Amino acid sequence: MTKEQVMKQLNRRDFLKAAGAVAGAAWSVISPLSAQSVANRSESITIPDFTRGAWRSATPLGIVGS
C-alpha cells in the first residue's frame, strides 16, 4: 500500500468515526425533542447542529447521483 492509500484509508476511518458520533448525538436528541414538541402542542423544534455548520462545506461522498 502506498503512503497516499494509507492516508486515504485513515482519513476515511476518521470521517466515519466523526460521522458516527454526530449521527449518534443527533439520534439521541430525537426522543427528548419529540416529547418537548408534544408537550407544546406539536410545536416545531429545531434539532441542534452538532457539526457546528461544517455540513455546509463538506465534500460530497459521491455515493448519491445527481
UniProtKB/TrEMBL annotation:
Name one matching Pfam family.
Answer: TAT_signal
Query: Where is coiled-coil annotated?
Result: none
UniProt KW keywords: Signal
Top-rank lineage group of the source organism: Bacteria
The keyword Signal belongs to this UniProt entry's keyword annotation: yes
Alphabetized InterPro entries for the sequence = TAT_signal, TAT_signal_bac_arc
Official protein name in the record: Twin-arginine translocation signal domain-containing protein
**Classification lineage:** Bacteria, Pseudomonadati, Pseudomonadota, Gammaproteobacteria, Alteromonadales
